[in-house]
Amino acid sequence: MTEKLHSILAAAPKVLLGITHVTEDISLPLAKLRWAISIVMPLSHAIIETIDEAPTKLYKHHYRQVNSLLDQLALQLSLALQEDGMQTLPIPASQIIDWSVPRGDIDHRRVAQQAGLGWIGRHGLLVTPEYGARQRLVTVLCDEEPELPQSLLTTRELPEDGCGKCRACVGKCPGKAIGDSPEQLKVKACHEVCADFSKRLVGVRICGICIKQCRPKVKNKS
Protein backbone atom coordinates (compact mmCIF):
# COMPACT_ATOMS: atom_id res chain seq x y z
CA MET A 1 0.00 0.00 0.00
CA THR A 2 2.85 2.41 0.80
CA GLU A 3 4.20 1.94 -2.72
CA LYS A 4 0.77 2.63 -4.23
CA LEU A 5 0.30 5.81 -2.18
CA HIS A 6 3.81 6.94 -3.08
CA SER A 7 3.00 6.45 -6.75
CA ILE A 8 -0.22 8.51 -6.50
CA LEU A 9 1.46 11.39 -4.69
CA ALA A 10 4.64 11.34 -6.75
CA ALA A 11 2.59 11.82 -9.93
CA ALA A 12 0.94 14.98 -8.56
CA PRO A 13 2.30 18.53 -8.91
CA LYS A 14 4.58 19.58 -6.07
CA VAL A 15 2.30 19.58 -3.02
CA LEU A 16 2.67 20.11 0.70
CA LEU A 17 1.39 17.12 2.65
CA GLY A 18 0.54 16.71 6.32
CA ILE A 19 -1.34 14.41 8.70
CA THR A 20 -3.17 15.50 11.84
CA HIS A 21 -5.72 14.35 14.37
CA VAL A 22 -8.44 16.99 14.01
CA THR A 23 -9.36 18.67 17.27
CA GLU A 24 -12.93 18.66 18.58
CA ASP A 25 -13.44 22.38 17.90
CA ILE A 26 -13.43 21.75 14.13
CA SER A 27 -16.77 20.53 12.80
CA LEU A 28 -16.68 17.37 10.68
CA PRO A 29 -19.37 15.76 8.47
CA LEU A 30 -18.64 12.40 10.15
CA ALA A 31 -17.43 12.76 13.73
CA LYS A 32 -15.74 9.32 13.80
CA LEU A 33 -13.35 10.32 11.00
CA ARG A 34 -10.97 12.47 13.07
CA TRP A 35 -7.70 11.79 11.27
CA ALA A 36 -6.99 13.99 8.28
CA ILE A 37 -4.61 14.17 5.35
CA SER A 38 -4.14 17.80 4.36
CA ILE A 39 -2.85 18.63 0.88
CA VAL A 40 -1.74 22.04 -0.38
CA MET A 41 -1.23 22.60 -4.12
CA PRO A 42 0.41 25.78 -5.49
CA LEU A 43 -1.20 28.18 -7.92
CA SER A 44 0.63 29.62 -10.92
CA HIS A 45 2.49 32.81 -9.98
CA ALA A 46 2.19 34.15 -13.52
CA ILE A 47 -1.59 33.75 -13.53
CA ILE A 48 -1.89 35.35 -10.09
CA GLU A 49 0.07 38.33 -11.40
CA THR A 50 -2.63 38.97 -14.04
CA ILE A 51 -4.95 40.04 -11.19
CA ASP A 52 -5.03 43.79 -10.67
CA GLU A 53 -8.21 45.37 -9.33
CA ALA A 54 -10.36 42.33 -10.09
CA PRO A 55 -10.05 38.60 -10.83
CA THR A 56 -9.35 37.67 -14.44
CA LYS A 57 -10.85 34.93 -16.57
CA LEU A 58 -7.42 33.30 -16.63
CA TYR A 59 -7.49 33.14 -12.84
CA LYS A 60 -11.06 31.79 -12.84
CA HIS A 61 -10.08 28.92 -15.16
CA HIS A 62 -6.88 28.19 -13.24
CA TYR A 63 -8.70 28.25 -9.90
CA ARG A 64 -11.15 25.65 -11.16
CA GLN A 65 -8.46 23.46 -12.71
CA VAL A 66 -6.35 23.34 -9.54
CA ASN A 67 -9.44 22.54 -7.47
CA SER A 68 -10.22 19.73 -9.90
CA LEU A 69 -6.68 18.34 -9.65
CA LEU A 70 -6.92 18.40 -5.85
CA ASP A 71 -10.28 16.64 -5.87
CA GLN A 72 -8.92 13.93 -8.15
CA LEU A 73 -5.85 13.47 -5.95
CA ALA A 74 -7.97 13.30 -2.78
CA LEU A 75 -10.28 10.73 -4.38
CA GLN A 76 -7.38 8.53 -5.49
CA LEU A 77 -5.86 8.60 -2.00
CA SER A 78 -9.23 7.97 -0.38
CA LEU A 79 -10.03 4.95 -2.55
CA ALA A 80 -6.53 3.49 -2.15
CA LEU A 81 -6.81 3.72 1.66
CA GLN A 82 -10.34 2.31 1.52
CA GLU A 83 -9.05 -0.73 -0.37
CA ASP A 84 -6.75 -1.29 2.59
CA GLY A 85 -9.74 -1.42 4.97
CA MET A 86 -9.78 2.18 6.16
CA GLN A 87 -12.88 4.38 6.24
CA THR A 88 -12.16 7.58 4.33
CA LEU A 89 -13.98 10.67 3.11
CA PRO A 90 -12.50 13.12 0.56
CA ILE A 91 -13.78 16.67 1.16
CA PRO A 92 -14.02 18.80 -2.04
CA ALA A 93 -11.44 21.55 -2.39
CA SER A 94 -13.97 24.30 -2.96
CA GLN A 95 -17.57 23.53 -2.12
CA ILE A 96 -19.78 25.88 -0.12
CA ILE A 97 -22.70 24.21 1.64
CA ASP A 98 -23.99 27.36 3.35
CA TRP A 99 -23.55 30.73 1.62
CA SER A 100 -25.07 32.64 4.55
CA VAL A 101 -21.98 31.99 6.69
CA PRO A 102 -20.31 30.94 4.27
CA ARG A 103 -18.78 27.53 5.01
CA GLY A 104 -17.94 24.17 3.50
CA ASP A 105 -18.07 20.66 4.97
CA ILE A 106 -14.77 21.36 6.71
CA ASP A 107 -12.39 24.27 7.26
CA HIS A 108 -9.46 23.17 5.09
CA ARG A 109 -7.35 26.07 6.37
CA ARG A 110 -7.52 25.07 10.02
CA VAL A 111 -6.87 21.41 9.24
CA ALA A 112 -3.78 22.39 7.25
CA GLN A 113 -2.68 24.62 10.12
CA GLN A 114 -3.05 21.74 12.60
CA ALA A 115 -1.07 19.52 10.21
CA GLY A 116 1.83 21.98 10.45
CA LEU A 117 1.64 23.17 6.85
CA GLY A 118 1.20 26.87 7.57
CA TRP A 119 -0.60 29.55 9.56
CA ILE A 120 -3.68 31.75 9.13
CA GLY A 121 -2.81 35.19 7.75
CA ARG A 122 -4.46 38.55 8.31
CA HIS A 123 -6.59 37.90 5.22
CA GLY A 124 -7.98 34.72 6.79
CA LEU A 125 -6.26 32.39 4.34
CA LEU A 126 -3.64 29.74 4.96
CA VAL A 127 -0.10 31.05 4.47
CA THR A 128 2.84 28.72 3.82
CA PRO A 129 6.53 29.65 3.54
CA GLU A 130 6.69 27.95 0.15
CA TYR A 131 3.66 29.55 -1.54
CA GLY A 132 2.41 32.41 0.63
CA ALA A 133 -1.37 32.36 0.11
CA ARG A 134 -0.99 31.31 -3.54
CA GLN A 135 -2.38 27.81 -3.13
CA ARG A 136 -5.52 25.68 -2.87
CA LEU A 137 -6.32 23.04 -0.25
CA VAL A 138 -8.07 19.69 0.06
CA THR A 139 -8.65 17.26 2.93
CA VAL A 140 -9.11 13.49 3.19
CA LEU A 141 -10.68 12.34 6.46
CA CYS A 142 -9.85 8.89 7.87
CA ASP A 143 -11.01 6.77 10.81
CA GLU A 144 -7.43 5.98 11.82
CA GLU A 145 -4.00 7.44 11.31
CA PRO A 146 -2.98 6.84 7.68
CA GLU A 147 0.49 5.53 6.94
CA LEU A 148 1.89 7.76 4.21
CA PRO A 149 5.47 7.67 2.92
CA GLN A 150 7.52 9.75 5.36
CA SER A 151 9.63 11.08 2.50
CA LEU A 152 6.57 12.87 1.08
CA LEU A 153 5.38 14.49 4.32
CA THR A 154 6.19 18.19 4.71
CA THR A 155 8.33 18.84 7.78
CA ARG A 156 10.01 22.18 8.50
CA GLU A 157 10.02 24.97 11.06
CA LEU A 158 7.32 27.62 10.78
CA PRO A 159 7.93 31.20 11.97
CA GLU A 160 6.61 31.78 15.48
CA ASP A 161 5.19 35.17 14.55
CA GLY A 162 3.43 33.99 11.37
CA CYS A 163 3.14 36.96 9.03
CA GLY A 164 5.39 39.00 11.29
CA LYS A 165 5.64 42.62 10.14
CA CYS A 166 4.27 41.88 6.67
CA ARG A 167 1.13 43.90 5.96
CA ALA A 168 1.13 43.59 2.17
CA CYS A 169 -2.53 42.50 2.06
CA VAL A 170 -3.82 45.18 4.44
CA GLY A 171 -5.56 47.99 2.59
CA LYS A 172 -5.71 46.08 -0.70
CA CYS A 173 -9.15 44.52 -0.24
CA PRO A 174 -11.85 46.43 -2.17
CA GLY A 175 -14.24 45.70 0.70
CA LYS A 176 -11.77 46.87 3.37
CA ALA A 177 -12.22 43.48 5.01
CA ILE A 178 -8.64 42.91 6.24
CA GLY A 179 -7.55 44.09 9.69
CA ASP A 180 -4.46 43.65 11.82
CA SER A 181 -5.25 40.04 12.75
CA PRO A 182 -7.22 37.09 11.33
CA GLU A 183 -9.82 37.64 14.06
CA GLN A 184 -10.50 41.14 12.71
CA LEU A 185 -11.30 39.88 9.20
CA LYS A 186 -14.73 41.10 8.06
CA VAL A 187 -15.88 37.89 6.42
CA LYS A 188 -19.17 39.32 5.19
CA ALA A 189 -17.42 42.23 3.47
CA CYS A 190 -14.96 39.82 1.82
CA HIS A 191 -17.72 37.66 0.40
CA GLU A 192 -19.74 40.65 -0.75
CA VAL A 193 -16.75 41.64 -2.90
CA CYS A 194 -16.53 38.11 -4.31
CA ALA A 195 -20.27 38.07 -5.02
CA ASP A 196 -19.96 41.39 -6.87
CA PHE A 197 -17.08 40.10 -9.01
CA SER A 198 -19.10 36.97 -9.75
CA LYS A 199 -22.09 38.98 -10.89
CA ARG A 200 -20.20 41.57 -12.94
CA LEU A 201 -17.15 39.74 -14.29
CA VAL A 202 -16.34 36.06 -13.85
CA GLY A 203 -19.47 34.14 -12.79
CA VAL A 204 -17.66 32.59 -9.80
CA ARG A 205 -17.30 33.96 -6.27
CA ILE A 206 -13.57 34.58 -6.34
CA CYS A 207 -11.30 37.58 -5.94
CA GLY A 208 -7.57 36.87 -5.56
CA ILE A 209 -6.46 40.44 -4.83
CA CYS A 210 -5.10 39.65 -1.35
CA ILE A 211 -3.66 36.36 -2.63
CA LYS A 212 -1.58 38.32 -5.15
CA GLN A 213 -0.07 40.38 -2.32
CA CYS A 214 0.83 37.31 -0.23
CA ARG A 215 3.98 35.97 -1.86
CA PRO A 216 6.21 33.02 -0.85
CA LYS A 217 8.40 33.59 2.18
CA VAL A 218 11.17 31.24 1.04
CA LYS A 219 12.71 30.39 -2.31
CA ASN A 220 11.60 27.00 -3.57
CA LYS A 221 14.18 24.52 -4.79
CA SER A 222 13.31 22.33 -7.75
List keywords for this structure.
6 strands, 6 helices, alpha+beta, 31% helix, 14% strand, 222 residues
Structural description of this entry:
- By secondary structure, the protein is of the alpha+beta class.
- 36% of the residues are buried.
- β4 and β5 form a beta hairpin.
- Helices cover 31% and strands 14% of the residues.
- The longest helix is centred in the N-terminal third of the chain and has 27 residues.
- The chain is globular, with a radius of gyration of 17 Å.
Question: Secondary-structure blueprint of this entry?
Answer:
Layout: H1 2-10, E1 16-21, E2 35-42, H2 45-48, H3 57-83, E3 88-91, H4 108-114, E4 119-120, E5 126-127, E6 135-142, H5 187-202, H6 209-213
What is this entry, summarized?
By secondary structure, the protein is of the alpha+beta class. It is built from 6 helices and 6 strands.
Q: Unreliable segments (pLDDT under 50, ≥5 consecutive)? A: none
Q: With helices defined by DSSP (H or I, 4 residues minimum), what is the helix count?
A: 6
Shape: globular
| Largest β sheet strand count, sense and barrel closure | 4 strands, antiparallel
| Mean pLDDT across all amino acids | 92
Order of helix and strand elements from N to C terminus: HEEHHEHEEEHH
Please report the distance between the alpha carbons of the first and last residues. Answer: 27 Å
Fraction of residues in helix: 25-40%
Q: Structural class, from secondary structure content?
A: alpha+beta
Major beta sheet, strand line-up? 1-2-6-3
Radius of gyration: 17 Å
Number of E-type strands = 6
What fraction strand?
A: 5-15%
